[in-house]
Amino acid sequence: MPIVPDTKNWTWVLERACADCGFDPAAIDYADVPPLTRESASRFAEVLARPDARVRPDDSTWSPLEYGAHVRDVCRLFEVRLQQMLRGATDGTVPRFANWDQDETAVTDRYGEQDPASVATELAEAAAVVARSFESVPAAERDRRGERSDGATFTVDSFARYFIHDLVHHVHDVRG
């Protein structure tokens, strides 16, 4: 059964704590993002090793496997977008990110049919890459900007906090 698409604009998580997962953007320093990224991937590896990783808790909620595949793709996407922001910094442009329909991707890529162990490995790899990329951005470059297709504007710093909320939130979603 298909999941109802999430159409919320989650940029509010940069302004106030998330009542669902407890993420507080004011409590997160930029330097916290890489280790939290790696920790999230590690937690997902544990969840994806469970025998029920393919099971949806109800008809309207993704399974841990589907969340894991989504988080893997979030890591990959944010790596691409971070690099766009940093390249834009060298030529003076503000990159505009192409729209990404996460729900369409979940269906098209058949998240629920993927191998949990492979997803765990791919997620760990993608998390390691994006964590290293965030670590490598000098403090003087963290005010570089990027713009989402809906006009939401991020600095590298706010982009990092927005990103890590996604991972923290989905670890909360699959806790067992």
Nutshell version of this structure?
This protein has five helices and two strands. The protein is mainly α.
Architecture overview:
This protein is mostly helical. It has a single domain (30-174), classed as dinb family like domain (Four Helix Bundle (Hemerythrin (Met), subunit A)). It has five helices and two strands. It has helices spanning 33-48, 64-91, 102-108, 116-136, 156-174, and strands at 145-147, 153-155. The chain has a two-stranded antiparallel sheet with strand order 1-2. β1 (145-147) and β2 (153-155) form a beta hairpin. α1 runs antiparallel to α2 (64-91). The mean pLDDT is 91.
Question: What would you call the quaternary organization?
Answer: single chain
Helices and strands: which structural class?
mainly alpha
Number of helices: 5
Widest sheet, order of strands: 1-2
Q: Which residues form runs of ≥5 with pLDDT under 50?
A: none
CATH evolutionary superfamily:
dinb family like domain
Instruction: Note the beta-strand portion.
Output: under 5%
Helix proportion range:
40-55%
Largest sheet: number of strands, sense, barrel closure:
2 strands, antiparallel
* Strands, total number: 2
Identify the CATH class.
Mainly Alpha
Distance between the termini: 22 Å
Query: Which overall shape is indicated by the principal axes computed on the Cα atoms?
Result: globular
The CATH topology label is: Four Helix Bundle (Hemerythrin (Met), subunit A)
**How many separate domains?**
1
Please trace the helix and strand order, writing H or E for each element.
Answer: HHHHEEH
Cα gyration radius (Å): 16 Å
Based on the coordinates given, report the CATH architecture.
Answer: Up-down Bundle
Mean pLDDT: 91
